[in-house]
Write a structure and sequence with these properties.
- The chain is built from 8 helices and no strands.
- Helix content is 71%, strand content 0%.
- The protein folds into 3 domains: 64 residues; 68 residues; 46 residues, no CATH class.
- It is rod-shaped.
- By secondary structure, it is mainly alpha-helical.
- Plays a role in the organization of both preexisting and nascent microtubules in interphase cells. During mitosis, required for the organization and orientation of the mitotic spindle.
Amino acid sequence: LKVLSRIDSILQSPRAPPSIFRPSKGPVQNYIKENGQGCGFEHLPLTIEMWADQLIALKDLHRSLRKLSLELLPWNTKDPQDNRESIRVEDLQLIVDAILEELEHKEKNSQTQSLQTLSAIVSHFQKLFDVNSLSGVYPRMNEVYTKLGEMTNAMRNLHELLQLDSSAPPTVVVDTVGKLCDIINKNVTEQVQQLLGTQDIHSIINKLEEHECFFPPFQALIQDLLCLLEISNVDDILPAVQNLK
């Protein structure tokens, strides 16, 4: 009776689950009440077995949470308390709260670091491309993107014109263009030498000076003849003079 009374007081506690007490129905309940014995606890053995299983599972859950805590909080060297006979829900809640607090702290730090990194990137861009204000960053980015596209197209066209591999670096392109310019300049010099009939640069200079001395008076003479003969083409000068004979 004392045991039943103790159980009855526990079941009537506000903290007790509402479905734990299931009163029997019918004449059996009246008979037991008349004899002063409790009733309605026939299902308690199964419930107690379930509680025992849950307590064991609670201990396993505590062990798993401790492992997770050591992974996320390696500096936390407190006693895992895996050998305790009883594990309370409060113990599990403390571990979970510590893990959540650390995750929130890491998230805040990550956001702060991201903002610092972005600020550093923007500042570096401003220094590289001489941007004085944040409002000028986007226009300069667009300008750089446009220039980069133009240079890329130009380099691709040069690769094709010079018959270079697409992987050839810009230095190779510049060297090839330089060699091509040297060849062109050499050919032009040779053509000028052939035209003027000399291989000496000083002779070329002398001939150009002679041309500068001779050509202006000759041009003036031709203009006077055109006016005097009343013609407009140089080719008509000789026929007009012959007609005067």
